[in-house]
Amino acid sequence: MANTPSAEKRHRQSLARYARNKSARASVRTAIKKAHQALASTNLNEAKEAVRLATQALDKAASKGVLHANNAARNVGRLSQAYAKKATS
């Protein structure tokens, strides 16, 4: 356990950041999962909206430092590619 007041404060801050980041990551994962489910369905408009929302969530998480920028870009690219493949078929 922390022995100094500054170390105790850093520990409290790290717990708060952990909880905030965990929530944000869970939201991003949910958005990605919904996008994949929408892509698997036959409704193209629903898939487009789900991909848009997932992209928005990924970009927001990356800008806040919850996700690495390359991780977000990779996921956005894969979702966009999957949507484009579905839209052309």
Structure description:
- This protein has helices at residues 5-40, 44-63, 69-88.
- By secondary structure, it is mostly helical.
- Helix 1 (5-40) packs antiparallel against helix 2, helix 1 packs parallel to helix 3 (69-88) and helix 2 packs antiparallel against helix 3.
- The chain is elongated, with a radius of gyration of 18 Å.
Low-confidence stretches: none
**Care to count the β-strands?**
0
Q: How confident overall, as mean pLDDT?
A: 96
Per DSSP, the total helix count is: 3
**Roughly how many Å apart are the termini?**
58 Å
Helix and strand pattern: HHH
Q: Approximately what portion of the residues adopt beta-strand conformation?
A: under 5%
What share of the residues lie within helices?
over 70%
Outline = elongated
The biggest beta sheet, please? none
Jot down its keywords.
89 residues; mainly alpha; 85% helix; elongated
Quick overview:
The protein has 89 residues and is mainly alpha-helical.
How is the secondary structure organized here?
Blueprint (H helix, E strand, L loop, with lengths): L4 H36 L3 H20 L5 H20 L1
